[in-house]
Design a protein that fits this description.
With 244 residues, the protein is an alpha/beta fold. 38% of the residues lie in helices and 9% in strands. Helix 1 packs parallel to helix 2 and helix 6 crosses helix 7.
Length: 244
């Protein structure tokens, strides 16, 4: 049994629910789709019998986020757990030594590229009933766009650094391309015209890569690196409280 937790990173696709709190089953792929995961959702999925779990988006502000312990629990029960794009990339970067499989560029940056800020993937988005449409841009998308523009020679290294600094200073709930272009307009000539052709929705790209694995279009293997072989899952007091 396969399950995917996703929202804004795959908005507008058949792989996100259309109503909050309800599953969306895609029978052609035997895949159950749920919205962004919160604390307890991974554990609940494992207890329901799901043994292939894809974590893309997660909740973090209004409720507790997915625990690392939940992922360890899933792995200890023999589940294959994949993470990408957003909350999935964060948890995969932290749990890949235990067997979680990270997919995509965002995961690579968190695990091996020096990215440490959890908020770099944060976005504001609509609920399921409105398609999980994102209202803001994540910093990882800004970074991917600036890298693409720099590689194409559209902006200079100094301009990239300045735009990134200004974008990062915008509160994540208010960070849109329009706002970014506005705050750099006095310092960067024709910023919108130069950057728009290079905009990369890296979270979407990574989420689609994870989806390809769940749909068995591609395979994914654990990333080489630190490996805590032989670890055992310990049912701590805090874990017991989660199970209540």
């Amino acid at each position: 049994m396969k399950i995917l937790f996703a929202g804004p990173s795959l908005s507008g696709t058949e792989f996100v629910p259309v109503r909050a709190g309800e599953d969306r089953v895609v029978p052609d792929y035997a895949l159950t789709c749920r919205g962004p995961a919160k604390c307890g959702d991974i554990t609940h999925a494992v207890d329901q019998g799901f043994r292939v779990i894809g974590l893309v988006d997660g909740r973090f502000e209004d409720v507790a986020a997915v625990w690392h312990k939940e992922i360890l629990y899933a792995l200890s029960r023999g589940a294959n757990v994949y993470g990408a794009a957003s909350m999935g990339a964060l948890r995969a970067a932290e749990c890949h030594p235990f067997g979680m499989i990270g997919i995509g560029e965002v995961f690579e940056r968190y695990a091996f590229g020096g990215l440490e800020d959890d908020a770099a993937v944060a976005q504001v988005h609509a609920p399921a009933e409105f398609g999980y449409i994102a209202f803001s841009e994540a910093m990882v998308t800004v970074d991917a766009t600036l890298d693409a523009a720099l590689a194409a020679g559209t902006i200079t290294a100094d301009e990239r650094a300045l735009i990134r600094t200004r974008a990062d200073a915008v509160f994540f709930k208010e960070r849109t391309w329009r706002r970014i272009f506005d705050v750099v307009s006095r310092e960067i000539d024709r910023a919108a015209e130069r950057l728009k052709p290079h905009i990369r929705n890296i979270k979407r790209e990574d989420a689609e890569s994870l989806l390809d694995v769940l749909l068995e279009r591609k395979s994914a293997t654990p990333r080489a690196g630190l490996d805590f072989a032989g670890w055992q899952f310990n049912e701590t007091t805090q874990w017991s409280k989660l199970r209540v």
